[in-house]
Amino acid sequence: LSETLSEAFSSARRDRKGPLLARSAQSLRSILAEAISRFRAASNQELAISYAAEWVLDNDYLVFQALRLLEEDFPPKFNNQLPKVVEGPERGLPRVYLLAREIVARWKANLDLEMIEQALLEFQADHPLSIGELWALPLLLRLCTIQLICESAAHITGLSDEIERVNLPHAPEIPGMTDDEIIASSFVSLRALASYDWKEFFERLNVTEKILSADPAGVYPHMDFETRDGY
After folding, report:
1. Angstrom distance (rounded) from CA 111 to CA 115
2. pLDDT tens-place string over residues 105-114
3. Can you name the residues that pair with 94 across neighbouring β-strands?
4. How buried is residue 106: exposed, middle or buried, by Cβ count under 10 Å (0-12/13-18/19+)?
5. Which of 36, 137, 170, 199 is 20 to 30 A from 162 (CA-CA)?
6. Between the CA of residue 147 and those of 84, 90, 114, 140, 163, what are the distances in Å?
7. What contacts 90, CB < 8 A, 6 or more positions away?
């Protein structure tokens, strides 16, 4: 992952100030709902609709499920506990959001979660993630993926000004891909994110978990997840 990201991680600190990312869900939901309305209008008028429109109309429920999860599992108290970027245009954003955004951009919205785990293991050799950041990462991968869907749908339906107006954090940048390609890849990734075993992901990547698993008595590794989570 990039040197710029490494610098942001090195200088980040806990800071209660910063945008509440879960609030982005309301703006994204509104933009997507309007895009869906325009796609359906074109379909009802028997106009040719794009490949992207078919993806959105057939799979919009995946976005709304993910947005609801973000609102429920990313409350202000959780957001405030995460280390924040302290300088530059991303000041105040959780550093793990920048990590999620770079992952989505690097994999061009087509997330290979096993390869991403390996990249995160390497990244944590220098920049270990906190427990909160590991739990936040799946939510923020969804958020970045939804940002791409909404931005591309906005481009197609003439809602780009609305994206600018709501002043969301910058979406991942994926040059060389059409809006159709971005939307198709993003929906495939949302399906993958919804079906992945995030408990096992957390245990494989949590630095603290690795230390506790070295329990000389061998008791900790044989506890159930809820008990280990308590520790």
Report:
1. 9
2. 999 999 999 9
3. 84
4. middle
5. 137
6. 20, 16, 22, 10, 10
7. 8, 98, 169
Half-sphere exposure in the Cβ direction for 231 (13 Å, CA): 17
C-beta of residue 109 within 8 angstroms of C-beta of residue 145:
yes
Q: Are 38 and 157 in contact (CB under 8 A)?
A: yes
Q: How far apart are CA 21 and CA 171, in angstroms?
A: 12
pLDDT at 39 over 70: yes
pTM for the whole thing? Answer: 0.91
Residue 100: Cβ within 10 Å count: 24
Q: What is the torsion angle, in degrees rounded to the nearest 10, for the CA atoms of residue 201, residue 203, residue 206 and residue 211?
A: -160
Is residue 92 over pLDDT 90? Answer: no
pLDDT of residue 58: 95
Confidence label for 18 from pLDDT (cuts 50, 70 and 90): low
What are 44's two structure tokens?
């009802």
Answer for the pair 144, 101: CB distance below 8 angstroms, yes or no: yes
Q: For 160-167, what is the mean pLDDT?
A: 87
| Other CB atoms within 10 A of residue 81 CB | 15
Q: Quick check: 79 and 143 in contact, CB under 8 A?
A: no
For 151, the token pair is: 């931005």
Number of other residues whose CB lies within 10 A of the CB of residue 30: 13
Going by pLDDT thresholds of 50, 70 and 90, the confidence category of residue 17 is low
